[in-house]
């Protein structure tokens, strides 16, 4: 808002604010993926090694899955937990992984713990339905678990069918390996968090051709599970960090091209956002919308944003403190509820 106020005093603003806002929105909607590219490369290597398994090799993998044998040959962990606060790029990383796997003709199924509805199976209802559709009615796995699939599709049937969740997911993977994305685990109820824990251990024990990628915000309710899986060498835990100044410069170069203003703009955004990816994107959008960051023919220039930047930093600190207090109150309310 402070940036908007300062921009309102600038002269020679473009006539069509609507066009400029549309341009800014489109420009920042797909920022270059240079900041998390290394994480994506690691995930794709895992996906290639796990999901790229030939069905004929699965039986021999399971036969060699004794603890001693796996320690001797080196274990490939099949669960990755990406842990970071909201707005740090977890969703973007999963989106890029989904796109790359699908481009390679791989299968990706996903469930969201935050918006899974009231189905008995929670986010796994969507996952089961996607797998059943991908495998088809003639699939042995689909025909072997009719009650579970019926429960997933219609939320009707005996709840005891939910106990066969891990068995079905592993059976399906023997027919067609896949990547399973489970997002917002910190938002999940206790039974779903326990299902995630059990599934990760079952996948590891059976050496199933499943890459399980879960995202979560840091939360006391999910920390014991994440730590337990990591301690027992059933999963890797990745923590996403804010952008570095160099990464911000790389992103800006990908968006704006080679322009002299990049270094100054990166310094400004670092001061305003601290490298938080979502704040970085939204602040960049506002700078363009309000005519502070202006495109001049084939280059870009900054106009009069320094004073707003200083005041924004002070206001943002106060707003951040208020936001944390609101989150604490919301958490207390949810726990009491």
Structure write-up:
- The chain has 337 residues and is α/β, with parallel strands linked by helices.
- It has 16 helices and seven strands.
- It has a five-stranded parallel β-sheet, sandwiched between helices.
- Helix 7 runs parallel beside helix 10 and helix 14 packs across helix 15.
Number of separate helices: 16
Order of helices and strands: HHHHHEHEHHHHEHEHEHHHEEH
Strand order of the largest sheet: 2-3-4-1-5
Overall number of strands: 7
Q: What general form does the structure show?
A: elongated
Note the topology.
Layout: H1 2-7, H2 17-29, H3 37-50, H4 55-63, H5 67-73, E1 79-83, H6 90-103, E2 108-112, H7 123-135, H8 140-144, H9 146-154, H10 165-175, E3 178-183, H11 190-206, E4 210-216, H12 223-231, E5 236-239, H13 245-256, H14 262-273, H15 277-289, E6 293-296, E7 299-302, H16 306-336
Parallel strand pairs: 1-4, 1-5, 2-3, 3-4
Antiparallel strand pairs: 6-7
Quickly list its features.
337 residues, five-stranded parallel sheet, two-stranded antiparallel ribbon, disordered C terminus
Summarize the structure.
It contains 16 helices and 7 strands. By secondary structure, the protein is an alpha/beta fold.
């Amino acid at each position: 808002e402070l940036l908007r106020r300062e921009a309102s005093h600038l002269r020679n603003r473009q006539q069509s604010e609507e066009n400029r806002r549309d341009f800014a929105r489109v420009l920042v909607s797909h920022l270059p993926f240079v900041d998390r590219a290394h994480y994506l490369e690691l995930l794709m290597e895992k996906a290639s090694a796990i999901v790229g398994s030939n069905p004929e090799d699965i039986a021999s993998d399971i036969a060699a899955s004794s603890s001693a044998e796996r320690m001797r040959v080196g274990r490939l962990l099949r669960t990755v937990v990406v842990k970071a606060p909201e707005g740090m790029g977890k969703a973007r990383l999963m989106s890029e992984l989904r796109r790359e796997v699908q481009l390679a003709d791989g299968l990706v199924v996903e469930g969201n713990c935050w918006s899974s509805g009231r189905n008995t199976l929670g986010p796994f209802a969507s996952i089961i339905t996607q797998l059943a559709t991908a495998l088809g009615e003639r699939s042995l796995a689909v025909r072997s678990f009719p009650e579970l699939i019926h429960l997933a599709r219609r939320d009707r049937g005996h709840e005891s069918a939910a106990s066969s969740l891990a068995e079905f997911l592993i059976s399906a993977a023997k027919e067609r390996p896949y990547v399973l994305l489970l997002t917002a685990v910190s938002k999940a109820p206790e039974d779903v968090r326990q299902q995630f824990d059990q599934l990760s251990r079952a996948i590891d024990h059976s050496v199933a051709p499943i890459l399980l990628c879960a995202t979560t915000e840091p939360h006391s309710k999910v920390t014991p599970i994440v730590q337990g899986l990591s301690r027992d060498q059933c999963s890797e835990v990745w923590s996403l960090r804010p952008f570095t100044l160099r990464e911000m410069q790389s992103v800006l170069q990908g968006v704006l091209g080679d322009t002299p203003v990049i270094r100054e703009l990166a310094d400004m955004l670092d001061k305003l956002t601290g490298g938080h990816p979502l704040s970085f994107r939204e602040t960049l959008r506002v700078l363009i919308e309000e005519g502070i960051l202006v495109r001049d023919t084939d280059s870009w220039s900054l106009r009069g944003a320094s004073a707003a930047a200083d005041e924004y930093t002070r206001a943002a600190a106060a707003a951040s403190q208020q936001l944390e207090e609101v989150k604490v109150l919301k958490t207390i309310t949810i726990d009491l509820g």
